[in-house]
Amino acid sequence: MSYKDRLSDLNRESPSSLTQQIVDAFADAIAAGELRPGERLPATRALAELTGVNHLTAARAYRRLSELGLVSGRVGKGTFVRATARPAAEAVGEERPEAMVSEAWQAYALPDAVDSYGDQVLAEMLRLGATAEEGLIPLSLGYPSPKLFPLGTIREISAEVLTEDGDRALQYGDVEGIPELRAELARHMERRGTPEAPENVIVASGARQALTLAARAVLRPGDIAACESPSFIAPIESIRATGARMMPVPSDDNGLDTEALEQLVRRHEIRVLAIQPRLHNPTGRDLSPARRRHLVELARRHGFFILEDGVYGDLRFEGASLPSLRAEAPEHVIYVDSFSKSVGGGLRLGWVAASGPVTDRIVREKRNDDMHSASLTQLIGARFLADGHYERHIEQAVDFYRERCDVLVAAVERELEPIASVSRPLGGGHLWVTLDEPLDERVLYREAVSDYGVSFLPGGAMMPERPRRTHMRISFGFLDPDQLTEGARRLAVAIRAVRRSGRPARAEPTIA
Ligand SMILES: Cc1ncc(COP(=O)(O)O)c(C=O)c1O
Questions:
Q1: How far apart are CA 478 and CA 344, in angstroms?
Q2: What is the pLDDT of residue 102?
Q3: Comparing C-alpha atoms, which of 478, 506, 497 is closest to residue 125?
């Protein structure tokens, strides 16, 4: 019986679903050579007619075949048998463990998962952070150094909290956060030049959640959001997840190009601009005073929010410390921060500061998301701040990271010039490296990790648009000086090797 005969004679009484019967008919035909690699399958409409199923079921069957690696779709062209189609028995699961077979239905029920390039890069960074691959130097990791963790202090404070405040530590709490932490965070911001009322502070589980809550509070699908470029994956993906349209705004050594932003806001009504005006990740730069003024003036004139991310603001190695933009325009600026970079990311202690009606919107998003952040960690954070531990810790951290930054800058200048350029950051945790000639960053990443034992964060994941040049973020916070030196050396060898292999030069990544 040919596969077309099987398709036109599906068994509606069978315990096997119609989708599964269609998948099996194609898989068997591919395995038997009845359908050859490269051969085109009927269009979904024709398949629906032939089999007597609806169009969605036909599309689902093709999706399943594609997930099994048997076919691939080309937009506007159709569905084709893959040249590398795996043997059907293996692919359709007849010899797979029972659990996998019984879960196979999920492939039809789940919506298509489209991981953005940024998601993939972040997942890869976290994977390397979790597995510590033998021999690999993870220059991609933007983690703080565990050598600085204030373990003794946190141990003592945790014991105090559990002894003196145990009932609150394990009980549900206020959506906005526990009052003493909100008051301490307001004082923390005030010490840094931004007068803040505790009522305006909402505790979040890390800056990532703070960004997500703020983005959801101000954006709806189809709205326009602007984002400086480059930026970090967290702000970019928080905005993208709302369904808003993202417009990149270029930046240079003085930070965001506010003239370019002005051109943009004249043509489009933007709701929000995402920016890191102090010790930006990945460049380590500040927004210049003149541009700060221009930005605030534009926000007031054109009526948009500024989503200010300040997670690296306390890690300054050079120059005078700057207050947040929120100090200048609290009615326009939603400020996001955390202790992830300064103390430890595992605490997941972050916050948002906002004024006016947007504050209630953020609180609503927080309630809908996770009710409130963990009470135990909040109580620990409040005491850590109140007892002055934070300020002492940060002094030590700045000296520690400055030394590592110097080591990595020197190693990059020695190993990578003239094939790449880097400018010394004013603080933060990273260097932004630009190659003098474009390379395919995916190829470079793969080869750097597998053949040369070094990773970096591909720049394309940190830019809302397709980059014209090849950039890499490399981080100095997590690694020791000798690893930083060796990492830069390996990176230089990897770049030269990929260049020599004459791969097609393509700066922009293919977004999955
Ligand atoms: C600029 C920036 N914003 C936000 C985040 C997310 O921070 P958190 O770990 O506090 O969620 C990061 C983390 O790397 C970051 O670099």
A1: 11
A2: 74
A3: 478
Cα–Cα dist 305/356, whole Å:
12
pTM: 0.82
Q: Which two tokens stand for residue 152?
A: 């003794």
Tens of pLDDT, residues 321-341: 899 999 999 999 999 999 999
Distance of alpha carbon 484 from alpha carbon 409, whole angstroms = 9
CA distance 266 to 298: 10
Answer whether 422's CB lies under 8 Å from 431's CB: yes
Q: How far apart are CA 94 and CA 104, in angstroms?
A: 11
How many Å from the N-terminal Cα to the C-terminal Cα in the chain? 39
Contact 144, 341 (CB under 8 A): yes
Calculate how far, in angstroms, residue 439's C-alpha sits from the geometric centre of ligand 1.
Answer: 27
| Regions of the chain with pLDDT less than 70 | 74-76, 84-101, 107-108, 113-114, 132, 503-512
Q: Is 345 in the pocket of ligand 1 (CB under 6 A)?
A: yes
Helix (H) or strand (E) holding 407: helix 389-416
Q: How far is the CA of 237 from the centre of ligand 1 (A)?
A: 12
Nearest atom, ligand 1, residue 205 CA: 11
Tokens at 374, concatenated: 């963990």
| Tokens of residue 163, six digits | 């002894």
- Other beta carbons within 10 angstroms of residue 503's beta carbon come to 13
d(CA 172, CA 374): 8
Phi then psi for residue 148, to 5 deg, are -100, -5
Q: What is the DSSP letter of 23?
A: H
Q: Which atom of ligand 1 is nearest to the CA of 429?
A: 16
Q: Parallel, antiparallel, or unpaired for β 71-74 and 78-81?
A: antiparallel
Angle at 452 between CA 447 and CA 456, to 5 degrees: 70
